[in-house]
Amino acid sequence: MLKAGIYLDIENLVRCGGRGMRYRVVKDLVEAQGATVLRFNAYLAVDEDREKQDGEYRRRSEEYRNVIRRMGCHIVPKKVRRFRDTDGNEIVKANADLDLAVDALLQAENLDMILLGTGDGDFLRLVRALQTKGRRVDLLSFANTSRELREEVDRHFNGMLVPGLLPQPETASERMRGILHAAVEEKGFGFITAPTGLGPEDVRDDIFLHVTDIDMAGGPPMNPAEFSYLKTRERVLDFRLEEQEDGKVKAVDVRVLSS
């Protein structure tokens, strides 16, 4: 059994599309890879000055931190600091990158696998250092992920595709999410890969997609170049699965999610 550590850069995840994510699902995702989670750290900005001045803000912030703790997550707070630039403008900073990197490097001595939750390319050197130590490094992120970081890790989990990670409306239970992994541009069709669960085997890649089934919100149909762009940019597709008479499956009522 692999021993794993999870290190989440909360500010980056929330800012890039992870608002409301379920921390229990993050742990479930790692365990589904055959690992036991020994460390689960969340690096979180804490605005102490604002909390002293605004009671309602303090209450909401404390509730949020308590929710994270109840998921078995250890919070590593980073105090928000305010500065003035040469023009007198206020600059707010709460960078937890160094804390996360130091903790991951030190604690990796007793771990086999690391899950980094961030899209920040500044962590590229950390990933390489951990891999040099023989550790497997996976990445969880949403939008605006550094391409170099995504390509360097052993596996990248797009948070938009992880089942149950983000809150969804009740009707979402009838829908799936995936990416176009193969496209025949001139004929306007391709195939989608979509996770069906959290484990490495919980995926299907036989979902047929025709360009005419993409919802363009009343606009003109998607052209072949745009269709191919969905594959090259790995745009997330939200769709319903429709069984065909021949036993094959097709994506219908397809929506392209914003990245």
Question: Can you offer a commentary on this structure?
Answer:
The chain is an alpha/beta fold. The chain has 8 helices and 13 strands. The protein has helices at residues 10-18, 23-31, 48-53, 55-70, 97-107, 124-132, 147-152, 224-232; strands at 2-9, 35-46, 74-79, 81-84, 90-93, 113-117, 136-141, 155-158, 176-184, 189-195, 203-210, 236-243, 249-256.
Radius of gyration: 21 Å
**What best-fitting shape do the alpha-carbon axes yield?**
globular
User: CATH H-level name of the largest domain... which superfamily?
Assistant: 5'-nuclease
What's the number of structural domains?
Answer: 2
Q: Tell me which CATH architecture of the largest domain applies here.
A: 3-Layer(aba) Sandwich
Helix content: 25-40%
The run of helices and strands is: EHHEHHEEEHEHEHEEEEHEE
Low-pLDDT residue spans: none
Mean pLDDT: 91
Q: Distance between termini?
A: 35 Å
CATH-assigned fold name of the largest domain: Rossmann fold
Please indicate the percent range of residues in DSSP E strands (runs of 2 or more): 25-35%
Q: Descriptors for this entry?
A:
single chain, 259 residues, alpha/beta, Rossmann fold, OB fold (Dihydrolipoamide Acetyltransferase, E2P), 2 domains, 6-stranded parallel β-sheet, 5-stranded mixed beta barrel, 8 helices, 13 strands, 34% strand
